[in-house]
Amino acid sequence: MRKRKWVLTGGDTLPGQEVRGYVDEHRLPVVLLSTSSQPEDRVLTEQEGELTVLEPLDENTIAGAEAILLAASEAVNGRALALASSARPRPALIDLTGQYEAHPSARLRAPGVEPALRDLSDPIEIVAHPAAIALAKLLRALHAFSPLRSIVVNVFEPVSSRGKEAIDELHQQTVSLLNFAQQPRKIFDAQVSFNLLPRFGGHAHCASLADAESRIEQHLASLLAPASLPPVSLRLLHAPVFHGHCQSVWVEFDAPAEPAAIEASLKHAGVDLRRRSEEPASNVSAAGQSGILVSDVARDRANPRAFWLWLASDNLRTLAETAVLLAGLA
């Protein structure tokens, strides 16, 4: 079988590492060339337990590529876009970073929960926010069971959504607090260890929670538009964990329902449903898993038509799996 050639920019970033791991784990018939996340510098990283040097992107890298997965800095991804634009045929472009959402050729993608696609010449496929993908899967399944009237969601964001430096800062803060030492606050300008937050400090060197919240809302609205679901009231909060989204979901149906019937419908829809006798869904149990985990379906004691559900998903796995699927469809 002929192996397809894909190029991955930023193979040393968290999304890039997840893509590489996913391709290796599933033994896909692909030659995946990973490049450095830096424009001019080589980067030392790990692959299959061995140290690997990733070279900067150049013209030879993309020659003959059928797809380019963008997971690097804006400078590197911009160069990849320029090189791809002059290639014939032009390789498919899949953006894992959201850097090109405002591009005229951008197209939001989440196979399985996305609306009908706009017909574009040489589109840039934007991978939808992983929290929006997970929530869209759950809400579509619930709405298919019984029409929804109201939806309220609290999304708990891990620091891996902010990159490697954010993970390092959470780790360093945790160690510093346990040793009664001064905490580093370069990325978040706030204590993120052992702490839940509605916003970061005023001098944070990362996108605000409000901006990320708005992006999730926009993506979710696009993904749910064809299903005619009610608007989703959503709040994004920082959680002091490294990986995995958790979401506290409140839904109100048009008609009364029973928890057992809801659980059965979710199970039938392919959701990994954890019953009371099993370990609950969590960011830990979702690690490395595809799809979504749901547990603790409970009736709202103040409203017989309303229910609480707990949703968990691996943010990096969702991102990588969607990107790989889009590259495979190209």
Topology:
Blueprint: E1 4-9, H1 14-25, E2 30-34, E3 43-47, E4 50-54, H2 59-62, E5 67-70, H3 74-85, E6 92-95, E7 106-109, E8 124-127, H4 130-145, E9 148-157, H5 164-178, H6 209-224, E10 232-238, E11 245-253, H7 259-268, E12 272-274, E13 293-299, E14 306-313, H8 315-329
Parallel strand pairs: 1-2, 1-5, 5-6, 6-8, 7-8, 9-10, 12-13
Antiparallel strand pairs: 3-4, 9-11, 11-14, 13-14
Helix pairs in contact: 1-8, 4-6, 4-8
Give a brief outline of the structure.
The protein is of the alpha/beta class.
CATH superfamily of the largest domain: Dihydrodipicolinate Reductase, domain 2
Indicate the CATH architecture of the largest domain. 2-Layer Sandwich
Oligomer: single chain
Main-sheet strand order equals: 2-1-5-6-8-7
Order of helices and strands: EHEEEHEHEEEHEHHEEHEEEH
Supply the number of helical segments. 8
What does this molecule look like?
- The chain is of the alpha/beta class and 330 residues long.
- The chain folds into two domains: 97 residues, NAD(P)-binding Rossmann-like Domain (Rossmann fold); 184 residues, Dihydrodipicolinate Reductase, domain 2.
- The chain is 30% helix and 25% strand.
- The chain is built from eight helices and 14 strands.
- Strands 2-1-5-6-8-7 form a six-stranded parallel sheet, sandwiched between helices. It has a six-stranded mixed sheet with strand order 10-9-11-14-13-12. Strands 3-4 form a two-stranded antiparallel ribbon.
- A hairpin with a 2-residue loop joins strand 3 and strand 4.
- The relative contact order is 0.14.
- The mean pLDDT is 94.
